[in-house]
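U., I forgot to send this yesterday:
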Amino acid sequence: MAVKRIVLTKAYNRRVLVYMEDNKPVRIRVIGDEPRFPIGTVVMARVKKMIPSSGACFVDIGDDTDYFLPIPKSVSGLHFADGREHTAVKPEDVVMVQISNEAVKLKSPCVTGRISIHSRYLVLEEGRGVSFSSKIGQNDRKTFKLPEIINTYSSKYHIIVRTESRNVNDPEILSEELVRLAEIYEHILSRNKTARVGNVLYSTPGYLESTLLDWLKYGCDEVVTDLEPYRQILEHATLDRGIPFRFYTDELLPLGKLYKLETCVDECLSRKVYLRSGAFLVIEQGETLTAIDVNSGHNTRGDKDKTSFEINMDAADEIFRQLRLRNISGMILIDYINMNSRDYLEQLIHKTASVVKTDDVLCRYIDTTGLGLFELTRKRVFKSFTEQWKGSD
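Result:
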């Protein structure tokens, strides 16, 4: 079984958080300065400018940044500071919003009027009923041990059962968590009518802590760092989950050098990625489209079709690793090496569709185009590594 380790250290004098399996990086994040309003923060906002063509508006939350707010069809879903019922949104209205997405390239950061809060096992938001994470299969749902009080709370809120709750055998744990979330939610709503623009009604963990907690759910045998200022954050996060924490102190061999993390950064920023066979990938990342070309290099030994098939199958695994490592999202086109065998092609399609299903981010094989290109989509949940690295210059 692979040894899973999370490392926080420096590479090229920048802080990086890396998730490794058998000392091979599979996820990496650049840890910059913490934003004033992290994603998930609930704050009061003032409407600045309407965008009728988009059914949206820009709002100000007190940090000189314009945030994009989609307006729901029924504005009754928004919480206005004056407490009155509104039939429309107008400039200077003050509403409660939650940070949903950070700025991406030329796009403004986004907020939503639909407030949701989450804990380790549950998410609570506006609405009614109970739903499950898409990663919890139908068979698991039938045998799931939900607390009895969930029926009471689901008549007031929409409750989402998160993937990690599959490991909970005692429904009382979920019950206590649900009660706590409901209390927090009601406290947020109670503060709405007295808060002013820029007032934070609910704050979330910083970027480092939230990323760490998110990664821990994939399994972890150890968390290690050599950065003293972050020691307490990591110790606290791991203590609650019984995960070993280690503070690295070898000055002769820095932690980043030990795990060759500068090599990992170079790989993530390079257009070329070499495979074990001598073949290589060429990755071109655009605004919304990423093109990946599989090149045989000088590997032309033996039967050409069989060699191409073997390279393509190896490339499928490495492409998936690169998508996850670089956090590539949007539309993805893969140009595998051409093969004449229909059977080889079918196996490659099955391989590609199978590996993307194991992604923790929603990633789908769509189809093979008329030109033989494999078309994928991957949901955007954060900036790509290239954006993170350039943004930390």
